[in-house]
């Protein structure tokens, strides 16, 4: 006999929902104010600039790395909450698991690796400049260039919404998600360019993606809130 999971209480769902904006708020503080990955530093610089960069921002980078290590698990809660509501869709659980798996894999290079690389460089800035340069490039390319996993997750999310008959999320959110995929494809050019709009700090490869992501993330949160409010008491997602 197959046992079904008990229905989640509304208290649990609301707790998970509000972890979502708290985590991404802390994420913004870490990456903008502490790690100073956003706005991204220039890729077309020499080893002297890179070494000076880590010497100048050593304290904030190390604090940011420590804080990120403490709150990193919040990303699992946020993605798990989206997965929970995706499993409520009539489109089935497969897309939900693809979304969860894609973001779980993509988050490691896209969020944690850049912090570890920069923390390693900042910890001992007296290292050979070429090693500092390697950590500088590896961190930024992993942060901005881990594209495939995110694109796959966004595609699964969009398709799940479009084929869903339960109207858990509105169809326009799927079309907005497709723009997320477009920005991921455009950003592949940062592997070829070290200056201009398609570099890792460029107006198209980076800033366009940031704007689309910011709009999409806020819309996703609002629709998650609406889905949680409208979920019937005692209901459970599909297995």
UniProtKB/TrEMBL annotation:
Protein known as: DUF998 domain-containing protein
Keywords: Membrane, Transmembrane, Transmembrane helix
The UniProt record lists the keyword Membrane: yes
Transmembrane segments: 12-39, 59-84, 96-121, 141-163, 172-192, 198-217
Superkingdom field: Bacteria
Keyword Transmembrane listed: yes
